[in-house]
Each structure stands twice: as C-alpha cells, then as structure tokens.
Amino acid sequence: MIVEMRVYHCLPGRLPALQERFRNTTLAFFAQYGIEPVGFWTTLIGPSNHSLTYLLKWQSLADRETRWNAFQSDKDWIAKRTASEADKPIVERIENSFLAPTDFSALR
C-alpha cells in the first residue's frame, strides 16, 4: 500500500470553488474509478490558507497509474472540471508526493 499526498494551491478566493467541485463532482468520479480518499484538509496555520491537502490510498504505483489515468481521461470529468473554471481558474499549482508506510505506522 502507498499513500499519495496531493496539495492544491488555489488562486486567492478560489478555495471554496475547489471544495464545492470536490464535494459535488470529483468524489463521485473517484468512486466510479475505485479511487480511495483517506481524508481532506485545509490549512489553518502555514504559508497559505488557500490550499486543500488530501490523501489517496493505492495498492501500488501501477494501481494508481491505471485508475488515475482512467479518471483523468474521462470526458465527463474533463467537461465538468472545465465548466467549474469557466469564469476563472481555481488551482494555481498542484504538488503531489507518494508515501510508503513505516513498519510502525498505524496505516499500512
């Protein structure tokens, strides 16, 4: 098992739009493609409070590649993501890291 940490850095004032997109659109696509979220967080104290951090659980990097690529190429997802940014962009940049649990981690 591996965990992917993704941090979406939003343009100022656009975090609510990103949260709405996840809540009303993205999570349904995740379910459709068997993408398993561990949790979602916003930043209370840190360099910016315009970001959303979330973790995804994968069986392997190959599992991630198959499921993520299918999700990202879904025409309905692309259309809905594009529509959500019709007025103005939401995300300035995305960071992601792949994490492997230690032998003493509660989540393995």
- Tell me what the CATH architecture is: 2-Layer Sandwich
Q: How many distinct helices?
A: 3
The shape, in one word, is: globular
The strand line-up of the biggest sheet is: 2-3-1-4
* Model regions low in confidence, pLDDT < 50 over at least 5 residues: none
Distance between the termini: 6 Å
Q: What Rg is obtained from the alpha carbons, in whole angstroms?
A: 15 Å
Approximate strand percentage: 25-35%
H/E topology pattern: EHEEHHE
* Average pLDDT number: 96
Instruction: Quickly give the structural class.
Output: alpha+beta
Biggest sheet details: 4 strands, antiparallel
Tell me what the structure shows.
- This protein is of the alpha+beta class and 108 residues long.
- The chain has a single domain (2-99), classed as 2-Layer Sandwich (Alpha-Beta Plaits), CATH 3.30.70.
- The chain is 37% helix and 31% strand.
- The protein is built from three helices and four strands.
- Strands 2-3-1-4 form a four-stranded antiparallel sheet.
- The longest helix has 18 residues, at 15-32.
- The termini are close together.
